[in-house]
Design brief:
The structure is a single chain. This protein is mostly beta strands. The protein has a domain of about 35 residues. The chain has no helices and four strands. The chain has a four-stranded antiparallel beta sheet with strand order 2-1-4-3, with no helix packed on it. The radius of gyration is 16 Å and the shape is globular. The model has no long low-confidence stretch (mean pLDDT about 85).
Amino acid sequence: MAYDKPFENKAPYGSLFAAKAKTNPKAPDYYGDVVIDVSQFEIVDGTIKIALSGWKKPLTNGSGTFLSLQASKPFVKGEQRQSTPADMDDDIPF
């Protein structure tokens, strides 16, 4: 299947893929990105704390797996937890 444009993550989601080849021992084992709407987070002393959740999913071409990520506010006991949106199950076209 061909796609007209490369896949881009939408806030608050991201993806991590296993590196195919490491050229040195300090190279990362996984690479990717996450899109975050920082207006949803509290900034304290120039920093924000983000909770990450990850799901292992198969690549659509069957050549392996990747980690699908979701960024959210850290859970605070006593607060209502957000449910995962229905579009979280969308396949990433890789």
